[in-house]
Amino acid sequence: MKWIRDGVVLLVALVLQSTVLHRIEIAGARPDLLVAYVVYIAWMRGPVVGTIVGFGVGLIQDLDASVPLGLNALAKSLVGFLVAKAGFRVHRANAGVRFAFFFIAMLVHDVIYYAVATDGDLATFAKQMVLTAVPSALYTGIVVVILLGIVEAFSRKLLLADEV
Amino acid sequence: MLRYLFVRRTDWTVLVIACTLSLSMMLLEARMQARVAWFLQHTLLAPFEYSIGWVDQSVGVFWENHQLRSRLTQLQIESDALQAERIENVRLRRLLHLEERHPYNLVAASVVARSLDRLGGSLTIDKGTADGVEPGRAVLTPDGLVGRAERSTPHETRVLTLLNRDCAVAARIERTRVDGVLEWEFGSQPVLNLRYVSSQEDVKVGDRVVTSGLGGIFPVGIRIGTVARVALDPNGLMKEILVDPAVDFRSVEEILVYTPSDLRGTAPADLFLEEPKPAAPGDSAAADSAAARPATPSSKAIATTQPSGDAAPEKVVR
């Protein structure tokens, strides 16, 4: 059942990312629901599933991207793995912890992504990080924490529950 | 050993495999990457694209139906008036012995999805082969060129924008007729690079860049953008020319697809295109080339190849 739910959430995230999210873009920053999805899955299902899902979601993005094939897959695989490793036994229900995880995961993802995409041009890399990556990470963290809160309030169940 | 890797160190093994696969794909040469991407698109992305099409068609259908009914009535009235004018136009042309101009069709479409990648690079539109939109067709807006259709289904088409590494355009500096190839270049802002322009050529900041038609895909004379920076490349042989695109790819919602004249198409083009210069009665050649640019001394002595079956538009997009 949980796999079906995860699949449906992924499909919704993909559709929203490609159709709606550009409308809420602020100065070039927009939430990245796909990174958020990888973080969520990695956090809940562990490093193996997190890495595999990160690779798969990244590959889907790569098929539609202007950057080298495999870049998104690499960045999201690493993010999935690191989040699962670092997120073990933390207080997942806490909004602050959630925000910190999504924010840092986005930054890690963007460091890998822009490091390769900018071909090692340090000035462009720094500019992208400051102007795009940090605002997008903040935006994603806020949007995802609010979305999780809303869904949990309606379903009366914690989507990101603490380790038992 | 394998048992140790896959049973006791599964997480690290999976990570190493994922990273190795990703890096291997990144190290493939561009042509091979495109082949792998094409193969995976037809396996991995097919369900997703089907879902987007389904959502797009289902969710808005009732509201759209209501709007279309009222629009239909209005258009029917306009259509009757246009039909009468068209017949009159044909009659007057015959009277003046003017040759039939090559008709061009532009199919209007809406953007229903955007690239999942943060740098963009592609759009999905709601028109496909059923509407005459086929792969390779030029896609534009009233502001200028957007890109080209890459892959079409009966009711959807994926469009590669100019901000995609696979969408190079044969372009020309409008003022001096200098030809080059326009390609996307990664940067903090979406920037296009006009390559293969000799250091001897006359190019200035602010020059307008238009399609040259040499690639055989894009009609001649469509605006692409303006020159933002001109410099010499490190070896001093070529110019480095950065071009600001005329189209804001992030906000584009309605686009037009250039289709062959024998296919179905609406005529929204007339809303966006310049009127042809009036021709003297009996001067059919003048009428045919009403919007063609006069050759200048600095024109490149290269024969312009037009897309086969796609006559170049006689009017120039503003």
Our Rg estimate of chain B from Cα atoms comes to 24 Å
Structural class of chain A: mainly alpha
Measured distance between first and last alpha carbons of chain B: 68 Å
Inertia-based shape of chain A = globular
Find the biggest chain interface.
Answer: A-B, 51 and 46 residues
Mean pLDDT score of chain A, rounded?
87
- Characterize the overall form of chain B: flat
Stretches with pLDDT under 50, minimum 5 residues of chain B: 262-318
Q: What's the N-to-C terminus distance of chain A?
A: 20 Å
The overall average pLDDT of chain B, rounded, is: 74
Number of helices of chain B: 7
Strand-residue fraction of chain B?
15-25%
Helix content of chain B: 25-40%
Describe this structure in words.
With 164 residues, chain A is mainly α. In chain A, 73% of the residues lie in helices and 0% in strands. The longest helix of chain A is centred in the C-terminal third of the chain and has 34 residues, at 122-155. Chain B has helices spanning 2-8, 10-27, 30-41, 46-59, 61-96, 269-272, 284-288; strands spanning 105-114, 122-125, 138-141, 144-152, 157-161, 169-173, 179-185, 191-195, 208-211, 223-232, 239-245, 254-259. In chain B, the strands form 2 sheets. A 6-stranded antiparallel β-barrel of chain B has the order 1-2-5-4-3-12. In chain B, strand 1 and strand 2 form a beta hairpin. The longest helix of chain B is centred in the first third of the chain and has 36 residues, at 61-96. The interface between A and B is large, with 51 and 46 residues.
SSE diagram, text form:
The complex is a heterodimer of chains A (164) and B (318).
Chain A: H1 2-19, H2 33-45, H3 47-62, H4 71-86, H5 95-117, H6 122-155
Chain B: H1 2-8, H2 10-27, H3 30-41, H4 46-59, H5 61-96, E1 105-114, E2 122-125, E3 138-141, E4 144-152, E5 157-161, E6 169-173, E7 179-185, E8 191-195, E9 208-211, E10 223-232, E11 239-245, E12 254-259, H6 269-272, H7 284-288
